[in-house]
Amino acid sequence: MVARSWKGWTSAEDADEYVDYLGETGVKALAGTAGNQGVQVWRRIAGDRCEFVVVSLWESREAIRAFAGEDIERAVFYPEDERYLVERELTCTHYEVAAAA
Fold first, then answer.
1. Does any domain span residue 63?
2. What's this model's pTM, rounded to 2 decimal places?
C-alpha cells in the first residue's frame, strides 16, 4: 500500500468553505479512482492561516497514475484552487505503508 500526501494553505476565514470545495473536487476524484483505499483531509488553523494535509491510500503506484497521470509526484489542482489557496505544495510525497492496524 502507498500513502500519498499533499499540503496547502488557505486563509483561516476560507477554511470551512475550502473543506466543502475539496469534498466536491479532490476528495471525490481520489475516492472515485480504482485502487484508492481511502482519503483523509486534515486541517490546522494557526493564526490567520489554515494548513491542509490531504492523505490518500492506494493499492499501488500504478493506481495513483490513474488519478494523477504519469508524473505521480506532481500535485493535481482544480479550477477554483487559485481562489482559496494562499500557498501550496506543487508536488506530493509518497510513502510505502510499513504497518497499519
1. yes
2. 0.94
